[in-house]
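3.2 Worked example (two chains)
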Amino acid sequence: MMMKKTTLTLFCALAIGACTAGQDSVTAEGREWIDLGVTPAVSRLFEEPVFDVDDDENADAEDALFANGAYIDHEDGHEYFAPSLDEEVAQSLRDAMPEWQGELADDLALTNEHGVSLDERSDTLEQVLGSDGRILAPNPGFGSYASIGRYTLQLQGVACPSGSGNCTASCTGTLVGSRYVAISAHCVYDRGANAWINSNRAGFNLRGQMCFNIGSGVTCRNVTSRKISPTWRNSWSTRARHDYALLRLSSAPTGTPVMRMSSLSSSSSIQSKQARQFGYPGTPPNGAASGISQLHGMGCSVTSVTSTRLNHNCDTTGGHSGGPLYYQLSSGRPFLLGIHSGSAVGINNAARVAGSATRTWLVDEMAGW
């Protein structure tokens, strides 16, 4: 973000009382960003939330109470807010994105193609309540697996469960742009503390690190800034549809493939796909120590669809948060359907990406950033 300071006279009402007239703003990405001051931060382990059961009939009315746009934890140490992009400006920024140019829309591709073989599916397609259907990803540095990375923050002292020593907080994220990662908002922003979650261990990057398997090796990049939706920060409810965010990496991870975001819009089309969910669990089911070599997941089903949320029956545990719910064409090309968030009673939830407003938010917030 190029910093061009001005004095703010507009947009204060859009920040839900978070600013007052006369505050500084910066011009970047085709809009003005309100400078909210030094970024509030907390260091703690992530908590995978248990979600409320969505009342989707009231979802639009509830979300309308909150401003559209984005909050950013910027590398200059300040937090900013901006309203949504004007559509004309947004389109011009999208057109300039290498990730957007020549994008293959999966709803124009051949339908009813499945990329997961039957032997990769669990006998019990459900949340981990009995037997665990996850497998260790074979060759995690190849194919769709290579787009799935491990996000870590390094903690010490009272931020760790023991109250001392060192520990690691981890989530899963998906490379959806050359240097942009889609992830769950609860992996970067703690609503209880109303603050961004940072590393507090000396010698480690404040905003964490993303690592990807690539070929037989591993590549890592520091996170320089993070964005969340106002619906996550300002909503009083814990719902998967609010739980999405973006990370900006220090540079593009060389050789790591981008997972495209699905444009499928109909519920039947989404549910017809053989879904997959893979992530980096904090406690791998094979008993190994957690780490970049421990990518686990399974083939499963999307059990229900709303305009903002997907329910699925992939087995997951802590650490899978932020990971992709996706499918593959027979060619092997993967498409992101949703961002795994957590669980409700008897189901797992994902923020819907496919053909949704969340997809538009992710594309627009990458554009020009």
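3.2.1 Second chain
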Amino acid sequence: MNRKIIYTCVLVALAIVLLPRIWGYKIEKLFVPKGPITYYTADSLENMKSEYKISNDILMGDKKIRLLLNYDSVLVILLENSDEVIVYDQITLLERLNPYNVAFDYDEELKELNVTTKDNMSNESYKYNFKITGNSLNYNGVEINDEAIVYFKNVEASLNSNSFDEAAGYGGVSQNVVYPEAYQEEIYKLGRLAMIESHDYALEIMDSSENYKEALDIMVYGFEEYYKSQVAVEDDFEKNIETNISKLYIEYEKKDQGSKYQLKKEVFTQYVNDIAYAYYKNNKFVEAEKLLDIVLAENDERVVAYINMGDVKYALDKKEESYEYYKKYVDFLGEKNKIIPKRVHDRIEESFNN
């Protein structure tokens, strides 16, 4: 056979296979939901206009919807909610769809958004239905949930039931949560809740069972979650706990979105004193000393911190320093105050005998 004819046949065969893919008429992978849902701020839409065809606003009951399509095979459905936008951006379209050949309409009776696409080559139309409820997208009967919202609900429920190990166990899921803007309020709320619930429960444990190791672990968890919400994620929070707590105090000087979710400063100082005490009861005297230094620098009239620091200094064999803290403690309360433990009087007496 003539070599030229063979080459021609090969080229024709390749054209039959490849041209539909190049021109975008291969009807495969239509609207395959892959989840999860991500969020952007409304301002980011301005930057997307050059890349996407954006439909007009479509009202679905009380929800405002827009569709964004481009040549890169992505359908994006936007649910606007104040200044936040929920983006369902993991739904694959035709491999290369002409975005200008798509029609949108909303069926008020069925509460469904209908998307009609047309194959440019065959002129055949394809229709798909969507429903949006809360933070999930229902596509042709398949529901795509916002796993970030599920994560926050699960953690909140675990914290409220004092299941701190369970709450921490959702950490793997949290890696899929897009932290900026859209979820920030939930993050602040959870950080505050973790701090309060873990602190109160840890105090109960110390009072009832004297399981100081468990109490300390729970307190550290609460501080770390609070730190994540107010400052940033820290790979090893406890290793740098003194520095990290100092950073949390700096946050009180700022006036930003997280301010309304901060603990009152005096309450936070109480929590720092209490975790210092937990370190002391676990024989971690150096850590306790550093934290009590922070407490007294923040509030030098916090009476209980003086006896705590006296005990810590005494345990570190810094007895001369410990006597000074005990004396200040007694000065605050009055020498004959019956709540002063006997060891304080004994150790002050010891200082005179040395």
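3.3 Remarks
The longest strand covers residues 84-92.
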